[in-house]
């Protein structure tokens, strides 16, 4: 009956037509069987059940694979039809149809669409409720396959699955008697938690329920009725569930106990099944700077697998380890066989990682050859062992393993390795979901520290790196360590051990320094012992992360020297990923706290130093002059590697990078160059790009060494920018930018003619073509940055046609539709407008101003930001020009420069209204300086009203009070009444100043309050100045405003007179006597105005000023009449 109800919830569907394209044979078989199944109708007879059984068996036995021509919707429709044919009272058929769902969805990698998912979920949930318990395992497997990547579409079934009495909660409980059913239920929960980008996440209450369930499983010991392999699979599912919750971005670990409990179980299972080690962890880890408890129990002889996992090496007898190719998708037992032990383990489980207790290939007489490295060179060198496909629907079938493939012991090691990998990947997700400052509270729990004498080394991520038999697990541990070290510069900056500390306690700075030293030692041990090229790449990347963040200026010397000498042989490693990461590490060394004296000495070492180290697990290098073997032909390569004149010992790293970029690759390292194009004569692109990066870093940090190679680097850059690969061109342009920005000022400046030669080479070479390459806007933007790095001295010495080329190209690119190009062009124009040879060019300044104003209206924030910066430079140029103009002794109104300054004034007026605060302040200052020029036709010129309108707008409405102060100061500069223009213009200025005085305390920014008094002082001074220049026709408007706001203006002017003008950015303060004299002069001027008969405005204004003076006189405590006042 239940089956009929479920089946009725989905409308009946007709069999889908086969696609018109040619279908592979397997697709034809599927459609033939699907058609037979769809032709059946529900029938409870024995013959019908037999036929359904046979059809299900045939569908399951088909050899499916992705791309076999079977459409996902056809698979979903077939599964719905199969469920319709199977009533829930037929346990065997329900079990068989569950196997069919699990098999088809897994083999064909199908995610069920929402239309069919609802029916199939209802059917499987009903089956769990109604069918016998022995079918639950297969039904749960089918349910896990259905909900995979469909968690957001299962919302209405979540209460029934994950509620307090939900199916999955019951079946995953510790009280569940069947361990396989419990594991399958946890697998379903993990698949429900898997989030898909662009779809809703699991609701927060269900996230917390699942998290607690997974955490409880990880904290619980293995039950007696559960075998080891099932337990490993259970742990994998729980770890994957937590990882999915954290990766979704919505699950935040904010509680200390919650995070500490998770980190405790992750650390425990990071070492699960590791041969020779069994640790006990507390329930919760707490933040502490001290190493935390990680008790180790002795390993029973029958449990120890160290001899089986990594063979013991005889010191007297050389043993050779043949290289093995690790193909993608191989099982872990194949990875763990035939590998070399990296650290010895005592019988009690102590991991001895000290130099005296470890082996190295040189001491054992073993040369461990690297892997072939035939895998493709990926972004990180090592793919994550827990990609989405790796976690997907773990099968319970044990037929994948047999005694012939390694037996149960090898199978067990493989599952244990997967648990360790799952814990590490989950730890990586945890690191990304919490703040770094929280993570560093647990530093000592996962990072090794130098142990006290006689005490064992604490277990840490380096324990896995040195001891784990699986290359994938070692790579995972290194990825986690890299994630912890990334961005740790501020935390590690407290480390300090330059002096010997002899105290009763160990400072925290010394503990961090000790941890940094131990990381160096362990990573270098791992570097020597590693045989897998992919894991070797991760070790070098981890070292690069450590070098980039460690404070070597506060640490004892020799740490970088050891890394430097160890990594040099790997530059010629057979695997391209190892070579690229080696260059990355060298780049990190030359960029950290540059310039470091220790690194400077390393760069000055002879070329042969450290290159023929036989202790390395890499092939020997060629002789130290290997890069000098340039082929006959063009002289570029020969000149690029020749020693500069006057250089007794050239920098070998610069010569190495130049040779990597320009010289053909050698046959000895071409076997695994996955990054090189077919038929390419040069090193792979990643190798050449990294070499260019190192050159740029050397030019920035160690210019004294790189300056001797200026012309050689110029030829290298020209060669790079002339190539077809845009990425090579891009990095070549970046080298130009970094190289030229360090030319001046420099402790070792180059002769100007050499710099001019360099730029002439660039501008005559491929740089103009890169600027005009509209197909690659990133390259255009980088070329603009390079062009902006030219120095004023060099630019003015360039030929005239090259100068015109630079200006023309930049002004043309400012109209580009690409925002990257437009932002770079705006910045470059802002650099050029400061050049002394260009700032007097009125046409260039005008064109640049128009270009900047256009960019200020762009939709891109980046473009507007760069344009605002350039606008500040432009106003600086205008101020310089104004000062130069103002400094001339003779200027007549008819001189030609006034037309240009009229344009400048209009431009400045525009700046006052539409730009950033710094630019507005500069514009106000420029306007003030212009107004001080007596030869300027202020008041009669047509631009006067626009200039005053901009200043009055700023003084009343600008949010920044310092800009208001500067604009009020500019308004008080004109010394004659006619310079203020018409009566209407004068009235607008007076009204604006009164309004500004009234708003002098209106601000929402607390930081502006400290400028309130200075603003009122400047406005009062401007108002009194205007009164001292007023004409008879101005008096009515003054009287009208005073009648409305006279009390407010009077109170502020009285305060101004009592306290004197406070110091601000407009000049020196005035004394009370000076301010009093200003008011008296204004009063005297009012008395001298010949007002028309019957006009009361003059009398009102004079009474206003006399009252102000009287108030000030009375407050001073003086007796008698006010001096200088008469009754009129």
Automatic annotation (TrEMBL):
Ranges of Low complexity composition bias in the record: 383-399
Superkingdom to which the source organism belongs: Eukaryota
Keyword ATP-binding: no
Ranges of compositional bias, category Polar residues: 300-312, 345-366
Keyword Phosphoprotein belongs to the record: yes
Domain spans labelled DUF4042: 418-599
GN (gene name): HEATR6
Region of interest called Disordered, as start-end residue ranges on this chain: 1-22, 292-406, 613-648
UniProt biased composition (Basic residues): 313-325
InterPro entries in the record: ARM-like, ARM-type_fold, DUF4042, HEAT6
Keywords: Phosphoprotein, Repeat
Designated name of the protein: HEAT repeat-containing protein 6
